[in-house]
Amino acid sequence: MVKQIEIIFFTGIFLWATACSYQPEEPKPQFQKQVIDDKVQIGYGLGIGDVDGDGKNDILLADKKQFVGYRNPDWQRFVMIENLTEKDNVCLAVRDIDGDGKVEVAVGAQ
Questions:
Q1: Do the beta carbons of residue 107 and residue 84 sit within 8 Å?
Q2: What is each CA distance from 74 to 35, 36, 71, 77, in whole angstroms?
Q3: Which of 4, 16, 41, 54 has its Cα between 20 and 30 A from that of 104?
Q4: Residue 102: per-residue pLDDT
Q5: Using CA atoms, how far apart are residues 108 and 66, in angstroms rounded to an integer?
Q6: Which tens digits make up the pLDDT trace of 24-80?
Q7: What is the secondary structure of 13-46 as a DSSP string?
Q8: pTM for the whole thing?
Q9: Can you give the pLDDT at residue 2?
Q10: At 12, is the secondary structure helix, strand, or coil?
Q11: Above 70 in pLDDT, residue 16?
Q12: Residue 65 and residue 110 in contact, taking contact as beta carbons nearer than 8 Å
């Protein structure tokens, strides 16, 4: 009789644990490759932020001789500044420091 109770108890715990841990499988995200610039020379640094204040995050890139941006949603390329130093640009940091809705960009080179 004791073995029968133990088996029923164990089976009940197993079924309860299985029911509590069951989660339906979430659909896997679908990604599509989208090339926004196939002329990048080096592409050291990358940043995301709203450069133009339209509420949409733009992509910023530190390339070999230019710091460029790509406007969301059409990803049109624009040059922020170029030829700052003789050597390559290497990094950038993007943050809205003063709270005006537009990011400030700090860059590093040489």
A1: yes
A2: 12, 9, 6, 9
A3: 41
A4: 84
A5: 11
A6: 788 899 999 889 999 999 888 999 999 888 999 999 999 999 999 999 999 999 999
A7: HHHHHHHHH--PPPPPP------S-S--S---EE
A8: 0.69
A9: 47
A10: helix
A11: no
A12: no
Percent of the chain with pLDDT over 90: 48
Gap between the Cα atoms of 49 and 30, Å rounded: 24
How far is residue 79's CA from residue 67's CA, in Å, rounded to a whole number?
6
DSSP, res 2: H
Residue 101: φ, ψ to 5°: 90, -5
Report the pLDDT value the prediction gives residue 110, as an integer from 0 to 100: 77
* Residues 106 and 47: beta-carbon distance below 8 Å: no
**Quick check: 37 and 83 in contact, CB under 8 A?**
no
DSSP, residue by residue, 37-92 = -S--S---EEEEE-SSSSSS-EEEEE-SSEEEEEETTTTEEEEEEE--SSS-EEEE
Residue 98 neighbours by CB under 8 Å, 6+ apart: 104
Sign of CA dihedral 48, 51, 56, 58: negative
